[in-house]
Write a structure and sequence with these properties.
Layout: H1 2-19, H2 29-32, H3 43-49, H4 52-61, H5 63-82, H6 88-109, H7 139-150, H8 196-213, H9 221-224, H10 230-235, H11 243-256, H12 267-270, H13 275-290, H14 311-318, H15 322-336, H16 355-368, H17 370-378, H18 382-396, H19 403-417, H20 420-425, H21 445-459, H22 468-478, H23 487-502
Helix pairs in contact: 1-4, 4-5, 5-6, 5-7, 6-8, 8-13, 11-13, 11-15, 13-16, 16-17, 16-19, 18-19, 18-21, 19-22, 21-22, 21-23
């Protein structure tokens, strides 16, 4: 009953905010504190109690109140970061501010006149809080800096160190976040203790960062190239002192995740997995950050001058140790093969569903770090990449909504097929029992590749036709290294040649 009353109070505050036509004073803390008090306990509450229509109405009818709400929420987050955020009240306030901004930001981005709002300055900043140009720090930079600080806040998102007394940092600015990387792996050997609540808090903050980065989605395509995403630009620049530990934390959390664990049947039904939501949003954040290369093209005179480089791309390209490559590749293949796991008891093993993000991430790594790609090609685990890709290509071939998944899978195989080692590895016998609707055969991984490609070309969605030449090119690339083909694959290959030269597809094959 008490929880219902607090939600009702929050709802009343929302109604009061959206119905008032007169600006509400920013100094009225009693009113504004209602939005980040303990009235709500989850992001779902915030999304339910603040309907989209009311946010748009607030934006159109009371823009000053919406602006003040955003200012106050960012101000609370900055204050939380300055005060270590080590009490329950401070942590709850910070989380509710994060949830509130996650809810509001998309409706700010969808209106072109509001897109520059977060790049204005916080009102009332003192002179000593200015940047090098003597101007106040934009609201967006204050927000990102505070969120990055909170991602390495002891007892909130990371476990506190064992230091005590005067050695304890007095604020988050003095913390060396490289000592608080979330997971062992690349560049970090220590395995931190796992606290589920920390995972939940990290997830909520990362979702807000991802929401901030989504501004590009609301811009016309003609403007995207001319206006780099300044949120990501700042997040991945040297101005963000947490760039390296953040990149390492995100990478290690993704690659160290094992959804099966000790293999106890139905463990995902008995226990709540706090790590999976974190891994999914961390993977998405990595992809989005790596997708924005702010370096100036060599021969493009129209590009904006003086853009800082993307440190995430820089760090990824500099990974070079074999043990790091092994860690990344094993983590990637473990997650990519997870949906293919077969057990005697149906649904007894946890299955993750972010294979499309994994494939995009793999493409990014191969694109920015050629040493990693060559490591994959010389490793026997390259077939652990091939089989799940073929599985997803076959599974998505007739689904128009998954055309993008097919594209990225084909492009990865096209990239790998250009190397001799990939073709040689295809001669390994295929003994797995992956559930695919293809003819039964006894042969090698090359047979599997040809049979799946035949299935895509003959029964795939018509929007996949531009990829047919790529599929045939892959076969051409690997053909010099194949030692044998099964009867089934040989028949399919002959049919592909017939289709290629006659332009007619005989589905009876």
């Amino acid at each position: 009953m008490g929880n219902t009353d607090t939600k009702l109070n929050f709802r009343k505050a929302v109604i009061q905010l959206t119905t008032k036509t007169q600006p509400i004073e920013a100094k009225d803390d009693v009113f504004w504190d209602q939005f980040w008090s303990e009235s709500v306990q989850s992001a779902q509450d915030v999304f339910t109690l603040i309907p989209a229509a009311e946010i748009r109405a607030l934006r159109e009818e009371s823009p000053s109140n919406l602006a003040t709400l955003c200012y106050k929420a960012v101000e609370k987050l900055v204050t939380a970061a300055d005060n270590l955020c080590n009490t329950h009240v401070q942590q709850q306030t910070a989380l509710n501010c994060v949830r509130l901004l996650t809810r509001i930001l998309p409706y700010i981005f969808e209106e072109s006149d509001w897109r520059g709002f977060f790049w204005s300055s916080l009102p009332g900043k003192s002179g000593d809080e200015t940047d090098s140009e003597g101007e106040n720090m934009p609201l967006s930079q204050s927000l990102i800096s505070a969120l990055c600080d909170l991602l390495f806040c002891p007892d909130f998102t990371v476990s506190a160190g064992k230091k005590s007394g005067p050695d304890n940092p007095e604020d988050l600015q003095s913390i060396d976040s490289c000592e608080y990387i979330w997971e062992a792996g690349v560049g970090f050997a220590h395995t931190p203790s796992h606290v589920p609540q920390h995972d939940y808090n990290r997830t909520e903050i990362l979702k807000l960062l991802l929401t901030c980065f989504s501004q590009t989605m609301y811009m016309p395509a003609s403007e995207v190239h001319l206006n780099p995403n300044k949120w990501i630009q700042y997040f991945t620049s040297a101005d963000n002192r947490h760039a390296l530990p953040l990149f390492t934390s995100l990478l290690n959390v993704v690659c160290a995740y094992d959804p099966v664990g000790y293999g106890v049947p139905f463990n995902h039904l008995l226990f709540t997995d706090s790590r999976e939501p974190l891994v999914e949003v961390a993977l998405q954040l990595l992809i989005v950050s790596l997708d924005h290369d702010f370096r100036e093209p060599a021969n493009d005179d129209t590009s904006e001058k003086g853009l800082p480089s993307n440190l995430f791309i820089n760090y990824l390209s500099r990974v070079h140790r074999e043990e790091d490559f092994s860690f990344i590749l094993k983590g990637f293949t473990r997650l990519l093969n997870n949906p293919l796991i077969q057990t005697y008891i149906p649904n007894s093993t946890k299955k993750v569903q972010f294979h499309q993000e994994l494939l995009i991430f793999f493409w990014k790594i191969c694109d920015y770090n050629k040493k990693f790609m060559f490591y994959v090609l010389k490793s026997s685990e390259v077939l652990e990449v091939l089989v799940p890709i073929l599985y997803h290509l076959n599974d998505a071939r007739a689904d128009q909504s998954r055309v993008g998944l097919v594209h990225i899978g084909v492009f990865i195989l096209l990239l790998l097929s250009g190397e001799r080692n990939f073709g040689v590895r295809l001669n390994k016998p295929y003994t797995a029992s992956v559930p695919m609707d293809i003819p039964v055969f006894t042969g090698t991984h090359a047979d599997l590749l040809i049979i799946v490609f035949h299935k895509i070309i003959t029964t795939g969605h018509q929007r996949l036709q531009p990829l047919f030449d790529c599929l045939l090119t892959i076969i051409v690339n690997v053909s010099p290294y194949l030692k044998t083909l099964s009867m089934v694959a040989s028949t399919k290959l002959l049919h592909l040649l017939e289709v290629r030269y006659t332009g007619q597809v005989n589905l009876c094959m």
